[in-house]
Amino acid sequence: MRASSVVLLPHAPSSVAVARKRLCSELLASGVRSGVVDDAAVIISELLSNALRHARPLPSGQVRVSWIRTGDAIEVAVSDGGAMTEPRRGRPTLSSLGGRGLGIVEALAEHWGVRHEPGCTTVWAVLNAPRNAPAHGGSVPKLAQTAAFTDDDTGVVGSTARLNHTRLAGG
What we know:
Blueprint: E1 4-10, H1 14-29, H2 34-54, E2 62-70, E3 73-80, H3 101-108, E4 111-117, E5 120-128, E6 146-150, E7 157-162, H4 165-169
Antiparallel strand pairs: 1-2, 2-3, 3-5, 4-5, 6-7
C-alpha cells in the first residue's frame, strides 16, 4: 500500500462514494485498524460534501482528495477552489438540516484546519493511527465512542462526551 494518495475527482456528489471507497481500500490494505478506517471514511465524506456544497471547484473543474500516513498519524484533506466564507464549525439547532459536518470532523479527528494557497483552499484533518496496533478486530471507531448532547435551553449541540470503551465492547 502506498503511504499517500492523491485523487482528482469531478465536482459532483458521486465523488463522495468514490473517494470513500478508495480511501478505505488503501488504508485497510496498509494495515490501518478498521476503526480508524471507519473514522477516516466519515471525515473524508464530510470534508468532500462540504467542498461540493459550499465551494467552487479547482480551476480544472475538479476537487482534490488526498491522504498520507506519517508515523502514527493519517492526514486526510480535500482541496477546492475556495468559497466566499471561511470553513468553520457550525452551531446547528436540532431542527437544522445542515451545519454538522465540521463538528463531526472535530469529534473524530485529533485536530483539523484550513490551508490557503492561491486559487485553492484545503481543509484537512489528522487521525491517530498507531502502527503497532492490531489491524482488525477489537477496535471501536471514535465515532462510536462519541455522544453528542444538546443544551435543553437552546437546542444547540454543545459538546461531545466519551463513552466507556469497556461498556461498548460488552465487558
